[in-house]
Inverse folding.
């Protein structure tokens, strides 16, 4: 897709064997963001994979960015306002109504949803 150039950033939520595949997609000085291990943990990572193209690797944790509940809620409100004003757009993969919340939880736990899920409170 990139003509052999690679991408600047990869957000890997799968982990396991996909981790190395994600790193292989990066261009020189690319950033690998490991933000989940849905399939499996990342085992025996060879740090030399980073040096071949001077890559960067991070594994962020929400609590390092949002130190308390108030800061987290303020950020969530800001994102909701941007979505409401259509500055950012998200196309949900699945919309549930409040009475379908147990189904939504089950679908998420069973990895049936890829992308955003939305619950409508009516």
């Amino acid at each position: 897709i990139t003509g052999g150039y690679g991408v600047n950033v990869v957000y890997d939520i799968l982990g396991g064997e996909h981790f190395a595949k994600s790193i292989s997609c990066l261009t020189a000085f690319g950033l690998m963001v490991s933000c989940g291990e849905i399939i499996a943990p990342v085992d025996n990572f060879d740090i030399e994979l980073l040096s071949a193209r001077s890559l960067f690797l991070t594994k962020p944790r929400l609590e390092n960015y949002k130190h308390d509940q108030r800061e987290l809620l303020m950020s969530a409100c800001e994102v909701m306002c941007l979505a409401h004003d259509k500055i950012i757009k998200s196309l949900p993969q699945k919309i549930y109504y409040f009475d379908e919340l147990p189904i939504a939880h089950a679908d998420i736990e069973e990895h049936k949803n890829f992308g955003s899920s939305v619950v409508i409170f009516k």
Notes: Strands lie at 7-12, 26-34, 56-58, 94-97, 117-120.
